Amino acid sequence: MTTTTARRDSPGHGLAVALVLLGGFVGTLARYGVSLLLPVTGGWPLGTLAVNLTGAFALAWLVTRFADDARLRLLLGTGVVSGYTTYSTLAVELERLLADGRAVTAVSYAVVSLVGGIGAAVLGHRLATRGER
User: Any stretches that span the bilayer, and where are they (predicted)?
Assistant: First the structure.
């Protein structure tokens, strides 16, 4: 398949944009809800950590489980999960921790976020392929 050849299961451009927008709206609302449940209270930004780890798991599970369904990948993966996760906020929170002189907290938060995200993605992929062997 070339970049100019559409996949047979690909939705039209307008539908693709609509699916991503709708999913992004839902994902952003979910992230906001988590931020209300897990506010930053002087320690680790647990809300951001929670959405990024669960988002890494969810994205890996979705793209593995629904590899042949372009509409679901656009709605749930590109839309919901992308609206839900927030690595830009992770970067800002790391900068704030460093600016506040909390280097050990910043480094440990970065390591847990990155290593945990990779682990969550591996777990999501493995669970999605469970039973296919």
Answer: 12-32, 44-62, 74-92, 104-123
